[in-house]
């Protein structure tokens, strides 16, 4: 961030510049108010530190003229001991805060950072308010970020057609919700929506689960069983975590999709397939194809219309709306009344990286709703891992969170961050350290918002 320092005392300008530059800020200087106006127009600083008492043009006049010229930078005034009335007058004219002289380095940095954080939050809230009128509603989903508006726009466009859709994205980004949206907006909406987690079915039962079996076809088959394809007839079959299917079933699934026919295990008759396939994965299936873990022909059969759902950290502007939605849903279900979320608690939610994505956000808010003792959710009602995401180093979580997916996702994010720092941002070298392909690393960097 660029800061303009305006003071007629050369030594003080130099001291302030060193303090701010050591803290990572870019500093430009001006010796008086008139020069300050010229520098502000030329350099477009994000913040201005201006002395109140200066010859010819003092800080108050500078403020008036700077605001009249359309200047929008944050202005902090510096006042000598006993000049608090000037500081108050400056704040009435639009100054954001003041720093009393004499001051120490820590006091300056603390005041600047506090002002910077407040302004960032104010801008975030302002941007979200402006977007309220422009939000897009897709069934029960609300999208404000450009990436989600685009993803859900594609989903609604493809919904009326029977083309297979492949939804990709990290766990917890809402892939099943989007799959249900596609089904609801399709001509099959009156038919069944049958979800199945492909990674949760034992391999020896997969074929029977998908295609059914006839009585006596194997030990324990004491009656005919209808498979998932038949159960979803006339509707949609949602194959969640399709990347976890073993190669043996990949072959059979491909044949079913190509020929639009299935044969139950142990049966001698084929049945016509009448389902719409919507698949989802948290893996990079193109990378899995390149590594030989997933059939290329099946990938192209499933990914006729690919839709990627970004991680929540990439669409943080949606967090306030999602938070309100989850609180309303759960307080109605639980019979608890809450007026909303305190501003400092919302600030914490906005700054947390959300390795578990939307699902983790909902989990955190349901927990906060139970623990809240006042009229609003406060910072104290949030889990320790959310309040202090960096506390304790790698895998900082609270003891209540036993989610393997969330912990592994956070570990992966931190490892990638460390590798990028160690290699000064060289993605090829970072991929070697992480034992990932460069393409897989680029995919994960995008998902975790590490650009």
From TrEMBL:
Keywords: ATP-binding, Nucleotide-binding, Phosphoprotein, Transcription, Transcription regulation
SMART domains from the UniProt entry: AAA, REC
InterPro entries linked to this entry: AAA+_ATPase (IPR003593), AAA_lid_NorR (IPR058031), CheY-like_superfamily (IPR011006), Homeodomain-like_sf (IPR009057), HTH_Fis (IPR002197), P-loop_NTPase (IPR027417), Sig_transdc_resp-reg_receiver (IPR001789), Sigma_54_int (IPR002078)
Domain Response regulatory per the UniProt entry, residue ranges: 2-116
Highest taxon of the lineage: Bacteria
Residue list for modification 4-aspartylphosphate: 51
Pfam families (alphabetical): AAA_lid_14, HTH_8, Response_reg, Sigma54_activat
Residues annotated as domain Sigma-54 factor interaction: 141-370
Protein name: Sigma-54 dependent transcriptional regulator
Protein's organism: Gaopeijia maritima
